[in-house]
Amino acid sequence: MNDASVPPLIDCARVLHYALVDETVRYTPKGKIFVNDEELGAVPRLAIVRNLVDDDILLFHCDEAWTCLGVSGKGGIEDVMADANARYDGLAGKWHVAPYSDMDFARALLDECRDERCSFCGRFHFEIDALMVEGDRAMICGDCIDRFHASIQGGDGG
Questions:
Q1: What tens-digit pLDDT sequence spans the chain (158 residues)?
Q2: CA-to-CA dists, residue 63 to 6, 9, 52, 143, angstroms
Q3: Residue 48 contacts by C-beta under 8 Å, 6 or more apart in sequence?
Q4: How far is CA 143 from CA 9, 94, 155, in A?
Q5: Cβ distance 26 to 89 under 8 Å?
Q6: Is 51 exposed, middle or buried (0-12, 13-18, 19+ CB in 10 A)?
Q7: Which pLDDT value is given to residue 105?
Q8: 112-150 burial string, b = 16+ CB within 10 Å, else e?
Q9: Nearest to 108 by CA among 129, 124, 85
Q10: For the chain, which residues make up each domain, given as ranges?
Q11: Which of 21, 43, 66, 109 measures 20 to 30 Å from 122, CA to CA?
């Protein structure tokens, strides 16, 4: 992937739309974003993503390698895009739909987030309301711990 190619996932959030901020786009600090008490400022990459934990649509402010540096926005895709367009004059015509199918997304999720799922039931961390306990080579969710505990106590445990 070259530095302009958006990945299907950023921080285990599905990329829906993306924009490359180039020299024709001017940053206008409307609604400043702070990260660790410092203003983030202009970034070279923006991605509208679907948060897999709660399905929220968010704007990820990214570096050239698509590492998320800050997050803003909430609402629908149009709301988040309008927020980004207000922050970056000239951005409106630079949005692209992420080129990934559901299958591409599923493969990327299995590859990139494989260490963030229960080794017993296979659910990802964002699919689980309960605690995740990590060992040297495995993770187990609270639901599986409860089922295991119930089974050794003589219950059916599921």
A1: 444 589 999 987 999 999 999 999 999 977 788 888 888 999 999 999 998 878 899 999 999 999 999 999 889 999 999 999 999 999 999 999 999 998 988 887 777 766 677 878 877 766 666 677 878 888 787 888 888 888 888 755 55
A2: 11, 14, 21, 37
A3: 15, 16, 17, 18, 57, 58, 59, 60, 73, 77, 80, 81, 84, 95
A4: 26, 44, 14
A5: yes
A6: middle
A7: 84
A8: ebeeebbeeeeebbbebeeebeeeeeebbbebbbebeee
A9: 124
A10: 9-108, 115-152
A11: 66
d(CA 17, CA 25): 17
Taken as a whole, the chain contains a residue count of 158
**pLDDT, position 125:** 66
The C-alpha angle with vertex 78 and arms to 74 and 84, in degrees rounded to 5, equals 70
**Phi, psi (degrees; rounded to nearest 5) at 35:** -130, 120
Of 29, 101, 107, nearest to 70 by C-alpha is 29
Class of residue 36 by CB neighbours under 10 A (exposed 0-12, middle 13-18, buried 19+): exposed
